[in-house]
Amino acid sequence: MNNHESRPEHDRYRIGIVEDHESVVIGMRAMLAEHPAVEVGASAATVADLLAQQAALDMAILDLRLADGSSPMTNVEELRAAGLETLVFTGAENPYLIRLAAKAGVLGVLRKSAPTNVVIDAIAAAAAGEPVVTTEWAAAIDGDPALSAVGLSARQCDVLALYASGEKADRVARLTGLTPSTVNDYLRRIRAKYHEAGRPAQTKVELYQRAVEDGWLPVPENTVR
Q1: Residues 6 or more apart from 114 whose CB is under 8 A from it?
Q2: Rounded CA separation 201/222 (Å)
Q3: Angle at Cα 159 formed by Cα 153 and Cα 175, nearest 5°?
Q4: What is the model's pLDDT at position 223?
Q5: Which of 6, 25, 48, 155 is most exposed, with the fewest beta carbons within 10 Å of its own?
Q6: How far apart are CA 123 and CA 13, in angstroms?
Q7: 165 CB contacts (<8 Å, ≥6 apart)?
Q8: Is the CB of residue 46 less than 8 Å from the CB of residue 71?
Q9: Exposure string (b/e) for 110-137, b if CB count within 10 Å is 16 or more?
């Protein structure tokens, strides 16, 4: 589906938009209508619907929050599997969603509130396969510079997310297929790794805080700022 290699240089890049607000799609089509290198080739409210159109596209633009409740990470992975690198274009303020998309390997994260010229330039750069470095994207990838990585395994991350979200160790064991003793051993190792990184995680509250910081649990929607 990705035609970067075969596309003649004088042709415009064709982008697909995954967005469930029609006004945003209309606005983007208007913004790019006279652009010499980029045009909107297709749009849909979900990734599945966009891919079902089998349109010849060079890249995708994705909103993080869609009405179907789909995961940003899954959406990006499905688009990339179809040969479409992805630029996130969103109004979502939740850093957890941005981090999910960043972990899936997007070209960048762009706010809908950005000036029109910034949006157009970012889309053109992304269509050409260039990363779009923004403050939001950098923050999602790097996080707080003071937060040292702890190198948890995939299994340890599963245990941390379940336990820190409120589950008891025996319940975590049932959900993961591990024994309670193994879960407790994992928790000891997780706490030790955070301790070595200089990030306290002795209490369940501290484990919850570390899980949110590292993107294993979402930031609460009712966080007081």
Answers
A1: 122
A2: 23
A3: 125
A4: 39
A5: 6
A6: 10
A7: 208, 211, 217
A8: no
A9: bbeeeeeeebbebbbbbbeeeebebebb
- Between CA 132 and CA 212 the distance in angstroms is 25
pLDDT tens string 170-215 = 999 999 999 999 999 999 999 999 888 888 899 888 888 888 777 7
Half-sphere exposure of 102 (CA within 13 A, CB side): 22
208 neighbors 217 (Cβ within 8 angstroms): yes
pTM of the full predicted structure? Answer: 0.62
Using only C-alpha atoms, the chain has a radius of gyration, in whole angstroms, of 20
Domains of the chain: 13-142 (3.40.50.2300), 154-213 (1.10.10)
Check residue 211 and give its pLDDT. Answer: 85
- Residue 157, Cβ density class (10 Å: 0-12 exposed, 13-18 middle, ≥19 buried): middle
Beta bridge partners of 90: 111
Q: Tell me, what amino acid is at 149?
A: A
